[in-house]
Write a structure and sequence with these properties.
about 325 residues; alpha+beta; Immunoglobulin-like; Cytochrome Bc1 Complex, Chain D, domain 2; 5-stranded mixed β-sheet; 9 helices; 12 strands; elongated; binds copper (II) ion
Length: about 325
């Protein structure tokens, strides 16, 4: 009943009360309140029937329990009116849930015209957000108050994008495009998760949604896209290391993850699974990025996917400089 009351009153709540539901993150997109209303509607209906059914059950168990001297009565016969009533009412309720849910889903699916389009590519275990000017980022940056459409696909297994504050959730499927859209209502930083179990590091497949204030987004995009030209190569390489998801598998502090750490590898001699030894130089790093399956480092699984067509030659040069610089910053004693 509390929920039902809350539901009826929700549109009239003052803004401070609307923005802080006690168990969901504050709604930060235009679709979020629509989703919340459907959620509370279903919750209210379920709570109501839960109370009625369990309440009556407890009451009947006590009231009609077996007692000495009380004989069971005749079993119930048909009661047409009752049966029609308890069929038609649930039918109407289920129809209402379907209608509300479907309308909200269509709302989420059907992007308004003139959306700003961002491509999303997921892989084990990183996100790539690809902007119209070619810039690729590991976080999702969007302008405030503008409809944004995500056109998404996966490079390997099924992933799911979820932005709880926006009430947005959609699967990314290899071999096809899916899409969703939202309009953020407030500048800020929000969490983004993968919600399909996609392998070992699924729980690390996280990113941020940065909603930029009016005018800031264009400036951010221009600066972000120019980082290869404006930053020293090693720093640009560090950006790429994070943006292209290398950081998911390669640490820079010496701890082995899914892949070997980058710390101190430059110039070292490593043994490969095939038995041969290889010196880690520019060409080996380049080959490891473009053809990772060619030489597999001993003790590791061949799980690194190729970055052919994803990183450019300039990107690779920057990544090499970054790996090199880790040696200088952390000289071995
Ligand atoms: Cu995933």
């Amino acid at each position: 009943m509390i929920y039902l009351f809350g539901l009826l009153a929700m549109n009239h709540w003052p803004i401070w009360a609307q923005s802080k539901p006690f168990w969901l993150p504050a709604p930060e997109s235009t679709t979020a309140p629509v989703m919340d209303r459907v959620f509370y509607l279903i919750l209210a209906i379920c709570s109501f029937f839960f109370l009625v059914i369990v309440g009556l059950m407890v009451l009947f168990v006590i009231r009609y329990r077996r007692r000495p001297g009380v004989e069971p009565g005749r079993t119930a016969t048909h009661h047409n009116t009752l049966e029609i009533v308890w069929t038609v009412i649930p039918l109407l309720i289920v129809g209402l849930i379907f209608y509300k849910g479907f309308a909200a889903y269509m709302d989420m699916q059907t992007a308004p015209p003139g959306c700003y389009e961002i491509r999303v590519s997921a892989r084990q275990w990183a996100w790539q957000f690809i902007y119209p000017n070619g810039h690729v980022d590991e976080n999702l940056h969007v302008p405030v108050d503008e409809p944004v459409r995500l056109i998404m696909t996966s490079e390997d297994v099924i992933h799911g994008i979820a932005i709880p504050a926006f009430r947005v959730k959609m699967d990314l499927v290899p071999g096809m495009y899916t899409s969703t859209w939202f309009r953020a209502v407030r500048p800020g930083t929000y969490d983004l998760y993968c919600t399909e179990f996609c392998g070992d590091d699924h729980s690390d497949m996280l990113a941020l949604v940065v909603v930029h204030g009016p005018g800031d987004f264009e400036k951010w995009l221009k600066d972000a896209a120019n980082f290869l030209k404006t930053l020293p190569p090693a720093e640009a390489g560090e950006m790429l290391y994070r943006r292209r998801g290398c950081s998911q598998c390669h640490s820079t502090d010496g701890t082995a993850g899914t892949g070997p750490s980058f710390l101190g590898i430059y110039g070292k001699t490593h043994s490969m699974a095939g038995g041969e030894s290889v010196v880690v130089d520019d060409n080996y790093i380049r080959e490891s990025i473009l053809e990772p399956q060619k030489k597999i480092r001993a003790g590791y699984q061949p799980v690194m996917a190729t970055y052919q067509g994803i990183v450019s030659d300039d990107d690779i040069t920057a990544l090499i400089e970054f790996i090199k610089k880790l040696n200088q910053d952390n000289p071995t004693p």
